[in-house]
Amino acid sequence: MTSVIGPPSEFSRVRRLADRAAYDPETIYGVLEAAMIGHVGVLRDGRPVVIPMLFGRAEDDLFLHGSVASQLLRGLSAGIEVCFTATVIDGLVYARSAFHHSMNYRSVVIAGRAFPVEAQDKLSALRAIVDHITPGRWDEARPPTKAELRKTAVLRMPIAEASAKIRSAGPADDLDDLGLPVWAGVVPVMSHFGQPVDAEDLTEGIGLSPAVNRRLHAGAPRS
After folding, report:
1. What is the mean pLDDT of residues 60-76?
2. pTM for the model
3. In sequence order, what are the residues at sequence separation of 6 or more whose Cβ sits closer than 8 angstroms to the Cβ of residue 91?
4. Of 73, 77, 126, 192, which sits 20 to 30 A from 184 (CA to CA)?
């Protein structure tokens, strides 16, 4: 897959297997919508640290959140450089040779600075994070209290320096290996949800909410 739009800079240009790269917002946002978790990389005391994180998106902004006590988020609130990645695995690619084994995937890398969200925008940013996993869930749950908001750090990362990389193909075996008596092909990887388990203290008679029920029938987030 090749995008007709080039990278925003040489920093974000995909160099290895560049024909799999895409830089257009539609592709990048599509991968973000399909991914359920991302990873945030920063330098802390001169050492790299990568943390898994829930996230959300609204327009051209990525939102991250965590406890105000988090050392990582305290650093991010100063507006330091970060790198965010998200990946969706679509299939295991089995080749006849070990060298050509691979995966079909969709991935996004976003580089830039993350800044604290202003108090008046905190609720809308948190809504984006909650509704990313289960659209409509925010309206079903109790909103955060003032005390809870004080305990929560919410960060905004503009999606300006980003690239996507996608593989969607079968094995790429060498011609000399095609005759080997070894199975080759693709095993699709698909996300699905199991049977919901009620909370032990759930009030009797309360069934699944509409948002959760829709999520169960829709599968993984907007894949």
Report:
1. 77
2. 0.87
3. 103, 104, 186, 187, 188, 189
4. 192
